[in-house]
Amino acid sequence: LADDESIFSSGNYRRNFEKSGKNYHHIIDPRTGYPSQNATAVTVIHNNSAAADAAATALMVAKPDEWMDIAKNIGLKHILVVDKDGQLYSDQSLQHRFNLNDENMTIINLGAL
Q1: How far, in Å, are 21, 22, 30, 84, 101 from residue 76 at the CA level?
Q2: pTM for this one?
Q3: How many other C-beta atoms lie within 10 A of the C-beta of residue 64?
Q4: Residue 29: is it exposed, middle or buried by C-beta count within 10 angstroms (0-12/13-18/19+)?
Q5: Residues 90, 107: contact at Cβ < 8 Å?
Q6: Which of 1, 28, 82, 93 lies deepest, with the highest CB count within 10 Å?
Q7: Averaged over 76-82, what is the pLDDT?
Q8: Taking Cα atoms as reference points, which of 113, 88, 110 lies closest to residue 98?
Q9: What stretch of H or E contains 54?
Q10: Cα 1 to Cα 28: distance, rounded to the nearest angstrom
Q11: Across-strand partners of 53?
Q12: Count of beta carbons in the 10 Å neighbourhood of residue 37
């Protein structure tokens, strides 16, 4: 990370429980009152750590077609989203900053921020 970058992740992999075969976690979608359903993990890079924290949670709740608009509105530098099926999505420039170890994984390019 550069000196002016903060990284923050949010996900449903902690603070959860399973009941009757369904996973419940702590990130609630205010539109439904139930745990968010569209992403399992989000990582963001921003120059403000408080904004990065809020943005990661907002993207966890957002619908896939809202991810880039939200990221642009908050002024994020980069996003990485893992959807409910395990597919990776990233802004165009973040993809050049890391390498996947699993050659079967692909990253869907969301475009430029």
Answers
A1: 36, 32, 22, 22, 25
A2: 0.86
A3: 16
A4: middle
A5: yes
A6: 82
A7: 93
A8: 88
A9: helix 49-61
A10: 30
A11: none
A12: 15
3-state SS class at 72: helix
Read off φ and ψ for residue 71, nearest 5 degrees. -60, -45
Question: Both tokens of residue 44?
Answer: 């963001």
Provide φ and ψ at 89, rounded to 5°: -130, 140
Q: Tens of pLDDT along 21-31?
A: 888 889 999 99
Six-digit token string for 90: 């990233």
- For the chain, what is the largest distance between any 2 Cα atoms, rounded to a whole number of angstroms? 46
**Placement of tokens 């569209």 in the chain:** 38
Tokens of 27: 């990130």
